[in-house]
């Protein structure tokens, strides 16, 4: 093995270790954020999905989170509603349908300061990088997110992955 290929192999191995560490810490961070406002990780992810992807029926929310459409998603919506993070309304077009909508203000009041601290710290680090490094990092993270999305779909048996 040449020095160049050994260096590349070592760099690839290090990248794999770093990604594994990053993903584990991201999950633990999200859980800690959720617990700081009296929720569990899935609850926080669900309200985040409602904020980013818009209102949903309980069934749609179950599909987004991977929960079963029955009691688990209803209990989650109940917890989020009690916390003031979501509201349930009847669909104007079909009164049998329930629509769950995020209430961003209380969510941001609860978890916003934590994410603001992380954003500040991250922006301080990004300021030390060149434009090319930032662009590369953005591409790398976007590709990692896409690979994760594909694998989530594959594991749930719904997708293209």
TrEMBL record:
<dbReference type="Pfam" id="PF12802">
    <property type="entry name" value="MarR_2"/>
</dbReference>
<protein>
    <submittedName>
        <fullName>DNA-binding Lrp family transcriptional regulator</fullName>
    </submittedName>
</protein>
<dbReference type="GO" id="GO:0003700">
    <property type="term" value="F:DNA-binding transcription factor activity"/>
</dbReference>
<dbReference type="InterPro" id="IPR039422">
    <property type="entry name" value="MarR/SlyA-like"/>
</dbReference>
<feature type="domain" description="HTH marR-type">
    <location>
        <begin position="32"/>
        <end position="134"/>
    </location>
</feature>
<keyword id="KW-0238">DNA-binding</keyword>
<dbReference type="InterPro" id="IPR000835">
    <property type="entry name" value="HTH_MarR-typ"/>
</dbReference>
<dbReference type="GO" id="GO:0003677">
    <property type="term" value="F:DNA binding"/>
</dbReference>
<dbReference type="InterPro" id="IPR036390">
    <property type="entry name" value="WH_DNA-bd_sf"/>
</dbReference>
<dbReference type="InterPro" id="IPR036388">
    <property type="entry name" value="WH-like_DNA-bd_sf"/>
</dbReference>
<dbReference type="GO" id="GO:0006950">
    <property type="term" value="P:response to stress"/>
</dbReference>
């Amino acid at each position: 093995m040449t020095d160049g290929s050994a260096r590349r192999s070592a760099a690839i191995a290090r990248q794999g270790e770093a990604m594994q560490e990053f993903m584990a810490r991201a999950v633990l961070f999200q859980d800690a954020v959720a617990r700081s406002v009296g929720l569990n990780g899935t609850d926080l992810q669900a309200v985040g999905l409602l904020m980013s992807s818009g209102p949903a029926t309980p069934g749609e929310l179950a599909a987004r989170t991977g929960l079963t459409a029955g009691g688990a998603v209803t209990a989650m919506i109940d917890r989020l509603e009690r916390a003031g993070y979501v509201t349930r309304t009847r669909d104007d077009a079909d009164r049998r349908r329930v629509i769950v909508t995020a209430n961003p203000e209380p969510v941001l009041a609860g978890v916003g300061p934590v994410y603001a601290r992380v954003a500040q710290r991250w922006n301080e680090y990004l300021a030390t990088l060149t434009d090319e490094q930032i662009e590369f990092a953005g591409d790398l993270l976007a590709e990692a997110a896409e690979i994760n999305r594909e694998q989530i779909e594959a594991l749930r048996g719904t997708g293209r992955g």
